[in-house]
Amino acid sequence: MLTAAESEALLLSLRVSLIAVLGALPIALSFALLLSRHAFAGRSLVEGVLHLPLALPPVVVGYLLLVALGTREPLGAWLQAHLGIRFAFSWTGAALASGLITFPFQYRAIRLSLQAQDQRLAEAAATLGAGPVDRFVNLTLPLALPGIVAGAITAFAASLGEFGAIITFVSNIPGETRTLPLAIYSALQEPGGEIEAARLAALSIGLALAGVMLAGFADRRLRAALEA
Amino acid sequence: MTVEIALRHHLGGFALDAAFRVEGRSVTALFGASGAGKTTIVNAIAGLFRPHNGRIVIDGEIVLDTAARRFVPAQLRRIGYVFQDARLFPHLTVEKNLRFGWRRTGGRAGTTYDELVDLLGLAPLLARRPAGLSGGEKSRVGLGRALLAAPRLLLLDEPLAALDATRKDEILPYLERLRDLARLPMIYVTHSIDEVSRLADGLIVLEAGRVAAQGSVFDLLSDPELGALVQAPGAVFAVRVVEHHANGLTKLAFDGGTLLVPRIERPPGTALRVRLRADDILLAREAPPSISANNVLAAEVISVRAGGSADADIALLCGNVKLVSRITRASLVRLGLAAGEPVFAIVKSVTVDPQLGLARGHAD
Questions:
Q1: What pTM did the predictor assign?
Q2: N or C, which end of chain A has less CB nearby within 10 Å?
Q3: Is the Cβ pair A126, B132 closer than 8 Å?
Q4: Are B209 and B36 in contact (CB under 8 A)?
């Protein structure tokens, strides 16, 4: 059904998006907690920076990553020399770029579900002997779960479509960084690649639709579980 | 068991400056209009609110002392809190809500889970989620959840205020049963004098952040001075069932005499609490020779308080029980009542609050 190159691009896309979402989730959760519970100077600036990937052209995000983490740049060289981590021209770099671009989706969903939480429930938990960590694990987190799951699925679906940041930062290497959108782009560059591009585009549409529907379904199910 | 509280706090135009003491395993009502500072005080006791200045000592343990920068967080205070809006955890079943505090602090104490579930009639609700419960059911679960955490003091913040009259009557018997069985000091916030007279032993009246009066319910409610504060004067006192008559009446005895009320299905010797509203007591100079009322009590006038209205409140002493009667100022002048004079109190109606359930009877 799928050619070897097509399934390679599909599996790579899924892997890149999965790592992107899982990597960004704890960071999004931490910022959401920080910004929904604490007022501090410069909060709106932090808020703005966290939303920046939504507004910036993805090419700019890719460019910034290249400048920061390229193998010949200080940070990139240091990471490779001391920790053995290389982002440039690697699928991990594609995951990093995707995670950064889709970060605001997760952050916003978690932030909204935390804000909607009734703080007075935490007071009730405290009078029943639950300390701060206990309250976070047994109250805040489960109540935020619908938002966390919905944000993760939306970010995953969006991540499958990331193009500009990936191609700018880690190029378009078959089997390493050529995800579905990049494969479509490559197919269109080849004479007679239109059929290939159409097949891959159809695949992308199906994946995106499934992702968005799953997000809605998960959200409804989790909310229903809270209220039943 | 002693709870000592002294708090001072300023917030905008509101100034709280209250100090009081609660002793023993009794129910103390914190009574006042909304905005009087009742909830602020119980929140400070629970550790949910940090006043500017204050000192709270519970059973010798200092849980708050702003002068010494001491603040014990709520989770370490072991003070139960029953919230007006129940505040049940929506993601947990009733059973898990009940076990929340029990697992954390209650397990070691003597409170047995099954006993309380039984007492509050919670068994049919255990598998359900809070969203599906009625207001009265939520209140009962909130009460059970707080008690299962084995607190050393229980705070109840208007637990009945969100309920309609029918639901209130459904919950009140449970509260009365708990008062009698839990052997736990309780501070009960309310603006309902009806709840005060049914449940409380002690009364603290708050006015604009200050303690306006403090004492036993029996003394304070029959004090005409305070009666004006609480809007509906009336006496509350303890009686004992003496005997049941064949004519359908039950005889109750107290220090100042006896009362006949419609039959109460309780064995002789049972202690009950009765209420006599000031409006339900008429006064006479001489013992009325023939009258339809069953209850005529010999009493002595302690004080006369004629307010700005057409009414006057007369404080009476009947044995060692204080009563209060509300008559018109015209009657006051006609009878020529003054402190120290003997009168006869004609009781039109007696409200009996048995430990379980409520019976209001007109014994005329």
A1: 0.78
A2: N
A3: no
A4: yes
pLDDT tens figures, B209-252: 999 889 888 878 777 676 556 666 788 888 889 999 888 889 99
**CB atoms inside a 10 Å sphere around CB B131:** 12
B48 and A142 in contact by Cβ < 8 A? no
Confidence of residue B363 (pLDDT cuts 50, 70, 90): very low
ipTM over 0.90: no
Calculate helix-pair angle for A4-37, A43-55, nearest 10 degrees: 160
**Which residues in chain A touch residue B72, judged by CB atoms under 8 angstroms apart?**
none
Q: Do A143 and B90 touch (CB under 8 A)?
A: yes
Residue B351 in contact with residue B274, Cβ under 8 Å?
yes
**pLDDT band of B109, cuts 50, 70, 90:** low
- pLDDT tens figures, B62-108: 999 999 999 999 999 999 999 998 999 999 999 999 999 888 886 65
Measure CB to CB from residue B75 to each of A120, A129, A143 and give the nearest one: A129
A16, A22, A207, B107 from A93: Cα distances, Å: 9, 14, 22, 52
Residue type, A90: S
Helix, strand, or coil (residue A94): helix
